[in-house]
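EI: anyone free to look at a 129-residue chain?
SC: sure, send it
EI:
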Amino acid sequence: MASALYPFGKQGLLSGAFNLTTDTINCSLVDTGIYTYSAAHQWYSSITGVQGAPMPLTAPTVALGVFDAADVMFTAVTGLIISAVVLYKATGTAGTSALLAYIDGISVTPSGGDITIVWDAGASKIFAL
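SC: here you go
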């Protein structure tokens, strides 16, 4: 599966339901051996295979249609192989926290240490519209 914006996430961006610079956008580490991306998924409660605790993005920016934020450090991560990250608008309740992006292309086996997600330094950063 290639990285993708969830369709309901795109709808939220275009309708103004998301404000990427002021909303709490969380990042979760996911094992794709357990979770399979689906365009039909709308809420964080659909995500299985989460490894470690979700972390909020800090220092988010939007410039010329490109979304970026500071790299994210997850501490003392244990569990299964991490092969994707999921971004979502955190409301405090999984069933109302809207999914935004699915980003794959990583492969990390947690060993109890820290894991840092380093966003792309190129033109697309986290994602570009």
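EI: The helical segments are 7-15.
SC: 👍
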